[in-house]
């Protein structure tokens, strides 16, 4: 009995203000509050509120047989609380149905697993606390930033106590295997691995309103035929996508909301098919095989690797310089500077520096506040220069912290 698993990523970064060399040492405010508020309210109006209403309607109509899952980043939750509390309330209404699963991830949508396991664990713990506080749930499934995944990530997630982890069903990893089955990560004894069916996911997320696509227009009945054709060849069909697909990437007049309203009935006309959440799939299905993923993969761009964030010298320099601040940030323990450092870790800041304008240029330009990747790099490094100056100034004013640093350096030497 094959299952469909819908997973939606909900994320908005804190966009940075235009920050020049002359602001360094003079302006401690890094974020563009007007842009952040305007964009959040725009997406809330076009996507979050109407789509949450659609999902709530469907869950009630099908008495819980239709189910979905979400991962909401800490940065988008902060903005909901600050700019649009009604959006947060609409997600809480979905949580109360008992048929929506909330996943854990890094609180700041960061690349911390690649650079600091300590920071990674701290952000995951903080995100879990947010889920408990806001939605009354303790997530059992983990989704790393941008579906960045390898064997080491899987072992870390298993150590943290999760039941399952999501990843991209990348062709170069799967080879002859299908993403439509449950797997077990290499080196793990308990953790389950759910892989994205990127073809069917992208039919909705990217191709839905493309009039040049051979399958345009995509209807719920047509999509259901494609899904039903997998009967006997699939245990689990994972449809993973950005939530902003609905109403923002694919506008309302494209018919995307009506497509979703019609999809559950079209899928469940075949009694062999059902909807499950990731934790339900992990509990009900046995892994078909172990999957060895020694190299990192992600769901970004055609390459499905890390080059969207680490593909050039600018990105590598900015990320390295940022994480070099970690020791001093922790030693100082200043809440404002810690929060600023964590928000600077958001992966979007490095994505804006990407120079891969070839096959994925339109994706990289979406909601990008910069004219070029070089502008993004210069702006970020100006802010980081001011941050490091503020950090060192605070440390210099705290002799007990300076003594601690000196002792630690001496003992290390």
By DSSP, the count of extended strands is 10
Low-confidence stretches at least 5 residues in length (pLDDT < 50)? 409-413
Query: Mean pLDDT, as a whole number?
Result: 94
**SS field, number of helical segments:** 19
Backbone CA Rg: 22 Å
SS-based class: alpha/beta
Strand content: 5-15%
The end-to-end span amounts to 61 Å
Set down the secondary structure blueprint.
Layout: E1 3-10, H1 33-61, E2 68-72, H2 74-83, H3 85-96, E3 100-102, H4 112-115, H5 117-135, E4 141-142, H6 151-159, E5 164-168, H7 171-174, E6 183-185, E7 192-196, H8 198-205, H9 220-228, E8 236-242, H10 256-268, E9 274-275, H11 278-284, E10 289-291, H12 307-310, H13 313-323, H14 326-332, H15 335-344, H16 348-351, H17 361-365, H18 373-396, H19 399-412
Helix pairs in contact: 1-2, 1-3, 1-10, 2-3, 9-10, 13-18, 15-18
Protein architecture, described:
The strands form 3 sheets. Strands 1, 2, 3, 8 and 9 form a 5-stranded parallel beta sheet that branches. This protein starts with a strand and ends with a helix. It has helices at 33-61, 74-83, 85-96, 112-115, 117-135, 151-159, 171-174, 198-205, 220-228, 256-268, 278-284, 307-310, 313-323, 326-332, 335-344, 348-351, 361-365, 373-396, 399-412, and strands spanning 3-10, 68-72, 100-102, 141-142, 164-168, 183-185, 192-196, 236-242, 274-275, 289-291. It has 413 residues and is of the alpha/beta class. Helix 6 links the parallel strand 4 and strand 5 (164-168).
């Amino acid at each position: 009995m094959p299952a469909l698993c819908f997973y939606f990523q909900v994320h908005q970064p804190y966009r940075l203000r235009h920050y020049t060399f002359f602001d360094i040492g003079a302006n401690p405010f890094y974020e563009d509050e007007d842009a952040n508020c305007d964009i959040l309210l725009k997406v809330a109006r076009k996507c979050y509120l109407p789509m949450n209403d659609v999902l709530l309607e469907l869950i009630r109509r099908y008495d819980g047989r239709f189910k979905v899952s979400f991962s909401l980043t800490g940065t988008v939750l902060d903005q909901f609380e600050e700019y649009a509390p009604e959006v947060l309330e609409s997600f809480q209404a979905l949580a109360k149905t008992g048929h929506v699963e909330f996943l854990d991830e890094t609180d700041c949508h960061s690349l911390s697993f690649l650079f600091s396991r300590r920071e990674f664990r701290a952000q995951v713990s903080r995100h879990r606390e947010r889920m408990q506080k806001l939605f009354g749930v303790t997530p059992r499934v983990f989704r790393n930033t941008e579906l960045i995944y390898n064997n080491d990530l899987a072992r870390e997630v298993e150590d943290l106590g999760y039941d399952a982890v999501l990843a991209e069903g990348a062709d170069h990893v799967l080879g002859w295997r299908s993403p439509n089955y449950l797997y077990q990560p290499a080196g793990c004894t308990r953790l389950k691995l759910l892989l994205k069916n990127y073809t069917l996911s992208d039919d909705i997320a990217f191709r839905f309103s493309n009039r040049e696509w051979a399958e345009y227009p995509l209807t719920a009945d047509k999509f259901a035929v494609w899904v039903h054709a997998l009967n006997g060849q699939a245990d689990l069909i994972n449809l993973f996508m950005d939530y902003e697909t609905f109403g923002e990437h694919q506008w309302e007049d494209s018919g995307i909301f009506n497509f979703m309203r019609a999809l559950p009935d079209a899928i469940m006309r075949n009694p062999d098919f059902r909807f499950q959440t990731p934790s339900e799939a992990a509990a009900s299905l046995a892994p078909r095989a172990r999957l060895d993923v020694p190299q990192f993969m992600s769901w970004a761009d055609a390459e499905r690797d890390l080059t969207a964030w680490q593909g050039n010298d600018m990105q590598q320099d900015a990320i390295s310089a940022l994480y070099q601040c970690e020791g001093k940030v922790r030693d100082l323990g200043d809440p404002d500077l810690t929060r600023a450092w964590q928000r600077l870790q958001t992966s979007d800041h490095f994505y804006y520096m990407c120079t891969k304008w070839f096959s994925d240029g339109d994706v990289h330009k979406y909601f990008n506040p910069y004219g070029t990747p070089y502008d993004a790099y210069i702006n970020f490094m100006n802010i980081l220069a001011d941050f490091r100056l503020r950090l060192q100034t605070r440390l210099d004013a705290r002799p007990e912290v300076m003594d601690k640093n000196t002792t630690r350096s001496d003992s290390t030497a």
